[in-house]
């Protein structure tokens, strides 16, 4: 069975090209929003780059030696050379902690992240997302290809912390979008599932690309959904327990944000 880390190996590079990409985009998201699924679908198209999580420190450590990169600027130029599709499009996906880490450690690198388009991928069902994150943190199975380290256990406090973290990261992205003012589109995970080709078309249109470039498709094994009956039971249980708490508190105004956060989409 393939491993998610295999996608960062040389076997998955595009043919080498020189210079900066003609067009670039970033998938700005939060954990367990379906960003890896979307990235794999866009990559398979062949004309939308290979938008993986390149600023994750684990992947920087994995790729830098073979790329001969010392520091993020060298690393990014090497990615431009090997992870830009033949039509000149480079994409990557990004979570808030990695953006902040890069800005603190190498501020001179940040202009290289400027993109022609930001794709904001979010999930309407925040409780389902928090349950998925809590489960992945326990099992370390971050994609359907991964093997779980052990059976996960329901943990209301952990799910609550994940829900808070997701909300904070979403608010951070909203602030960044408002400050930067760069071209962007927003896509809900729930609208993406089963309509991946349509979403790819939206991104092409936003980038000013033709409906389909003359680029061969890329062979990547599809990712399956990881949600199952256990996930559904955790979602239902968490909502019930939090609603019970809200009822006991008399649905106070200071808890209204929590009530909105756990409401089904």
UniProtKB/TrEMBL annotation:
<dbReference type="InterPro" id="IPR015124">
    <property type="entry name" value="Stf0"/>
</dbReference>
<dbReference type="Pfam" id="PF09037">
    <property type="entry name" value="Sulphotransf"/>
</dbReference>
<feature type="domain" description="Sulphotransferase Stf0">
    <location>
        <begin position="24"/>
        <end position="241"/>
    </location>
</feature>
<dbReference type="GO" id="GO:0016740">
    <property type="term" value="F:transferase activity"/>
</dbReference>
<dbReference type="InterPro" id="IPR024628">
    <property type="entry name" value="Sulfotransferase_Stf0_dom"/>
</dbReference>
<protein>
    <recommendedName>
        <fullName>Sulphotransferase Stf0 domain-containing protein</fullName>
    </recommendedName>
</protein>
<dbReference type="InterPro" id="IPR027417">
    <property type="entry name" value="P-loop_NTPase"/>
</dbReference>
